[in-house]
Amino acid sequence: MTATTPGREGCATQSGTLPAQRASRWLALLSLLIGLSGCTSVGYYAQMVQGQWALIRDREPIATVVADPARPVALRERLAAAAGARRFASAELALPDNASYRGFVELKRPFVLWNVFATAEFSTRPTTHCFPIAGCVAYRGYYREAKARAEAQRLQAQGQDTYVGGVPAYSTLGWFSDPLLSSMLRWDDDQVAATIFHELAHQRFYLPGDTAFNESYATFVEGEGLRQWRASRGLPPPDAGREARYQQFRALLLTTRDDLARLYAQPLVSVAMRAAKARRFAQLRADYQRLRATPAWRDERRFDGWMSQPLNNARLVPYGLYEQWVPAFAALYAQHPGNWPAFFHRVRLLSERPAAEREQALKALLGQAATPQS
After folding, report:
1. What strand order describes the sheet that includes 113-119?
2. Which domain of life is it from (predicted)?
C-alpha cells in the first residue's frame, strides 16, 4: 500500500459479492496476515481486512454511476472525466489494464484511512513496520480515525513524536481492484488523474522495502503522465508555479529535518536538547511566514493548515519519501522518451541490483538530470 496510489467493471458486482478468483485471493490474504501476526497484531490486521472488505462490498462500476440520471450531475461529470484518464493510463502510458479505478465507492468519511507516523523524541528516523505484501514502510494505516488517534496516543505515552495523516487513496498493488474513492473527488480533475497514474504505477511495479524508490518512481509517472494526458486534450502543461511553491515548502521541511538530525547527534542532556528542538521548529514557522509574504505566495494557502498544527519530528517523515529520486527516473525515461514499456523494463532492471549498487545508479542518473543537454 502507499500513503499517499489504477480495469474491468465485471470484476465487481453492485451487490458486493466476489467472483471465485477474488474470493480465493481474499481468503489467502487473510490467512497470510493472521498467520504472520503475533497476538498483539491480530486486532490491527483484522481492522485492515474489514476495511478492505468494505471497499470491495461497496464498490459499483463507474459506468453504471455515470449512466444513472438519478445520481448528481456533478458526480457523474467528475467520474466521466476520471474514466477518460483511466482509459488513457492503459492505452498511452502502458499501465495495467485491469479493473482498478473502474469502480467507485462513496465513503462516509473524509479519508479512506489514516496513517500513523512515529519517531523517537530526539530522532528524525521513522519507526518502520513490515507487512507481508508491502514490505517495510514508515507508517501504519487505520480505517477508523479514532483507532489511529488511539495508537498515536499510545506511542506518545511512550515518549515518541507522532503524526496522524489522512489518506485519500492507496494501492493494494494489484491484489484487489482498487476503486476510485469519494475522498479523491475533493481534488480537481488533474489531481484525480495524477493519482490514478501514481497508484497504477505501483501496480505495474513495486519494490518491497524501498519506499523512496517506489514513491519517486510513481511520482515521476504521475507527473509525466499528467503532462501527456493534458497534451492529448490540447491543454498546456500543469501550472509550474504551483509545483515550484510546493518544492519551496518541501525544501523548508527537509532543511529543518537535516538540522534536527545534526542536533540530535550532539551530546546534549535532554532538557537542552528539547529546548534546541523547540527553537528549530519555531525557526521553521518564521521561515514559512517569510515565504508566505513573498508576491508569488500571495494566494497560496495549501500549507497554512498543516503549519498551524503542532510540529514535531514525525510530521516531517512523509516529506522526501516521494521526490528523492524523481529527477533520476526522469533521466531514465529520457533515454527512451515516449517508450513507456522500455522505461518500466529499465526500472525493473534497476530494482534488481543490490541496494547499495541501486543507490549509486540512481545518483548517477541524478547527475545526468543536472547536466544541461546540448
Report:
1. 140-142, 113-119, 161-167
2. Bacteria
